[in-house]
Amino acid sequence: MIKYIMLFVLAVVLGVNCAFANTPVKDEFVEQTLAGKELIKPEPNLNYDYQDTDRVMIPIQITKKISSAGKYGAYEGMPLEFIVKENVFYNHKIVVPAGTKIKARVDIITGKGISGIPGELFITDFEIPNVPGYQIMEPISKRGQNRTLWILPLKWALTPLPPLGSFTNIIFGGDAVIKPKHTLKLYYYPNWI
Amino acid sequence: MKRFILILALLLTGSMVWAVDDATLLKEKSCQQYINEIGTTILNANKIDKHIIFTYNKDEYKKTMNDPTITKRQIIFYKEYFKYIDNDDEMAAFLAHQISRAVKSFSGEWGGFVSSAQIKFAPKKYEIFADKRAVDYMVNAGYNPIGLITLLNKIYPQNVLDKLIFHNPPTRRMAIVYEYIYNNYPYYLANNPYINNINYQNFLLNSVANRAKLKEKIQTGSTKRIKYD
Q1: Which residues of B touch A40 (CB under 8 A)?
Q2: Is B109 on the interface with A (CB under 8 A)?
Q3: Which residues constitute the domain of residue B100?
Q4: B228 in a structural domain
Q5: Would B229 be classed as within a structural domain?
Q6: Fewest 10 Å CB contacts: which of A114, A170, B31, B106?
């Protein structure tokens, strides 16, 4: 009889433990904010074929000035608009006419840092009429002034005179700025699948 | 006769040593192939036109000044890392993070020397950048980016001096990755196969305060960067 009682108690204890182990913490934030939204699974790029070497450059200009910080500071996810600067030809045919509007977005922003490290803007998700996204080499990036180029030699030169070498650390790099007059290069591979 | 038996014994011992070596070699080769397959899939799926290699190393990891990921563009996977890798997503997460660092080291002046130096000067900044880029790489290569969160939750300790030293606290990295996935690939959070994974559950538990900050940001429509703990 005692044997059966012990078995029963053991079963109850184990059962309770298992029940608790299978009670997950819910991600209520996701349930509240994403529930009911139609979300599409991103398509992976696994059917590639990179045999073809043809490449076409698309010169683009932004419509509004942005920077990695400050008054014109962009934010990650910010929608952008570009305009194609001149006609883009492939096999003697216009594939993207001048003046075409292109949508894109700011993907990642890295702020400027010590030792002359520049800020950087990464732009992605270019939507060009009649050009599939997988044929575009993205993201493209724009850096601010890279002061590390002269800070590094200066730091090395001043190292024998401590602590002067360390003072160069406090010099920051420049913010990344994209103005409407800047032309960015976007590369399009018309035969990639 | 004695001499013959002795030679035979020696020969047999030799072949046993070879047999052991072959088994070890085959095991290492299969590890190398596994790493190559996932790493190269990430490179190809993301159109990364830089030469980066993956090397399996059975030796113990030793911290050195030299970081081959950014100096040689050679990503080394030490045997002991396998302790933390439970599936392909987590392996892809590890490699994708390293690939993004390697790709960064190609950019800029002097053949990437300056960029490599900058990654050394400001590891915290580029650690976050590499995490975000790793998410993109994983998604493009068909892996679930939640694997990066579960890996970070297991592999990095929360150092007391994280605010002073050269790495971000893993809780901050996980929160930033979570926000990046939420903004760019919400499908993976809404359809999350990791929801019952104990490491993901542990992340949900230790990120309650950080996720509350993100919730407030979303509800107020703010575009400011959140200071995660």
Answers
A1: 187
A2: yes
A3: 24-220
A4: no
A5: no
A6: A170
